[in-house]
Specification:
Elements lengths: L3 H33 L10 E3 L2 E5 L6 E5 L4 E7 L10
């Protein structure tokens, strides 16, 4: 049996990791916006490639994830995956 102190320590570690991940994610989104994120809102129709659905900015080419269930674009901008047919 684990002591209460050990269980509290484990719970603290899990919560601390969750908070750090959330803070890192927020910092990453902020830096993308400040440095190279996409501010345009002219997005393509949704594409699905290898299980990921996303839309691409028609001006800069960055992608954002898309949820087909809610029909909403979400998340930070990122470089879309390169189509394997275009690599030749």
């Amino acid at each position: 049996m684990q002591s209460v102190a050990t269980m509290n320590e484990q719970r603290f570690r899990v919560e601390d990791e969750r908070r750090r991940a959330a803070l890192n994610d927020a910092a990453k989104r902020l830096m993308q916006r400040l440095v190279g994120g996409c501010w345009q809102h002219e997005l393509s129709r949704p594409f699905t490639n290898k299980g990921r659905t996303y839309r691409v900015c028609l001006k800069c080419g960055l992608a954002r994830d898309f949820n087909p269930s809610t029909w909403k674009t979400y998340g930070a901008s990122y470089s879309p995956p390169v189509n394997s047919l275009m690599q030749n």
